[in-house]
Specification:
The protein has twelve helices and no strands.
């Protein structure tokens, strides 16, 4: 007597390929896609630079606030000077460009995501919004940490070291120092995103990062010692602690996006789908 129980139908080939949407473009097509997204990014930066130009004077005023407060604390004239007639205009251009890049940052990150997304699983593309929020949030947090905590303390300490001398600080040199520290910390805070990309490509693994956690902590304390104007261990720890927390967060992110873990999760979902 023939078996009346129908056997389950094999999965449709299209359903098998739906989980992973790998790009099938040639090298020239990849380069064309990269060129197109770079042009879009440059256009967005140009528009944002033009929009941010109207607030550049207010931004420069906020940039000067830490050094002016430090000069006032030690009884000095808080006004900065410039040595070349072109300095003020060049500084406005530089600040305007940085502000434009910052305003365009979400769009730039979206272009980066759009370029790499064909190599991700379909369900992983849902991470677009968290990726944008985390990237911008970490960048802003790093800059805010530098502006509110690191830079004011550093300026007050450095001005105090020359209490017997009369400071004559040029605006262009101060701007370079300000941008170096603030942008440096903002970029350092992007560590989870950088390691996440490296982990998604299989360059690093959670095991590798966890194995070298001691070396990473040593590097963060050395970096904090360079930033810290004082020599006490408490201030060094305050500066190094956020970097260590970001490194631990990076290990978790790498574990989520590593190809080996992605394959395991995909195989598990397929098994559950066939049951």
């Amino acid at each position: 007597m023939p078996d009346l129980v129908a056997e389950p139908e094999p999965p449709h080939p299209q359903e098998e390929q739906e989980e992973r949407q790998m790009g099938s473009m040639s090298l020239l097509q990849h380069l064309e896609e990269l060129r197109r997204r770079i042009l879009y990014s440059l256009a967005a930066v140009a528009i944002c630079v033009a929009a941010g130009w109207y607030k550049v004077d207010e931004i420069i005023g906020r940039m000067e606030a830490p050094i002016q407060q430090a000069l006032k604390n030690h009884g000095f004239d808080p006004h900065l000077v410039y040595l070349n007639p072109t300095d003020t205009f060049n500084i406005k251009l530089k600040i305007g460009l940085i502000v434009g890049i910052f305003i365009a940052c979400p769009f730039l990150l979206y272009q980066v995501w759009g370029f790499i997304s064909p190599g991700l699983y379909r369900h992983e593309k849902r991470f677009l919004l968290p990726f944008l929020i985390l990237s911008v949030g970490l960048f802003v947090s790093g800059g805010f940490f530098g502006y509110r905590i690191v830079f004011p303390v550093a300026m007050d300490f450095l001005i105090g070291q020359g209490a017997d001398l009369r400071p004559n600080i040029a605006i262009d040199q101060y701007t370079n120092l300000f941008l170096t520290i603030i942008l440096g910390l903002a970029i350092i805070f992007e560590l989870p995103i950088v390691l996440g990309f490296a982990g998604s490509m299989g360059v690093v693994s959670p095991k590798f990062l966890f194995k070298h956690i001691r070396g990473a902590c040593l590097f963060f304390f050395v970096f904090a010692a360079i930033l810290t104007p004082t020599t006490d261990i408490m201030n060094m720890t305050i500066y190094a602690a956020p970097m260590i927390m970001l490194y631990l967060l990076s290990i978790g992110i790498v574990w989520l996006v590593h190809p080996k873990q992605r394959r395991k999760r995909a195989e598990k979902r397929k098994e559950q789908g066939l049951q």
